Amino acid sequence: MGKIEIMLLDQALNRQLDLNLLFHGREECEPLHAWGPGVRDSYIIHYIHSGKGTFRINGESYSLSAKQGFLIPPGVIVQYEANKEDPWIYTWLGFRGIQARSFMESAGLDEASPVFRVRDDSIFFETLHAELIAAKSRKSYELMFQSLLYRFLAELMECADAPAIVSSSPSKEAYVRKATEWIEHNYSQKITVRQIADYIGLNRTYLSSLFQEQYGLSLQMYLLHFRMKRAAALLRNRSLSISDVSRSVGYTDPFLFSKMFKKVNGVSPSQWRENS
Fold first, then answer.
1. What is the value of pTM for the model shown?
2. pLDDT recorded at residue 10
3. Using CA of residue 160, residue 161, residue 167, residue 169, what is the dihedral sign?
């Protein structure tokens, strides 16, 4: 094995943030050192400092070298291998979060276009790993990690071959996807349709119409059904009271929760629990 440095971040950092740095590392690969075929469950970006290698995704093969990099999207089968004569050295970052996909889209990166090249005069990518290691010893290391991750993505948008900003407006599907991701991470809070619409940056009536078009439900009803689906799963845990489940899906009033649960599922939470 070549020289390898990996850092997994403390579990305290593993929170549902707009963007969450999970791990990072640097590796000096041996000739023909390979990974895959396999699937990752988060976004991972590799940046090549020197050497050469091959990245494969969706039947496409990319021969890459210094100042280039590649994206591994979650849930996609990939494979990569170091060159036999001149194996690559790379740094990688793994991250996820409700904003991860939209940031990748803004950088022009997805499974159809997974490769990028940075400017020859860019220094940040070369020093990133050292800065992350140094940040670990700081009192404010949590904020430092987040700052470096955002800086990395900002530099990526500036340096990538693809346009840094997508010229066309986001599609209807993109708006709905962003809203559903936000609901998935915030449904346990006391959120409103207005808050969701404000986060997406759309009029709430228009956003609701997009949900009606895609799911046959208004945004309000989609949020209700999502919460009740989560509640139904939680009710199987008999150590949780009905009030516990109610709070867990964003309802401070258990009576209102029971009313809404019956509206969606046809039976009360207690009846559901008895029958499950």
1. 0.56
2. 45
3. negative
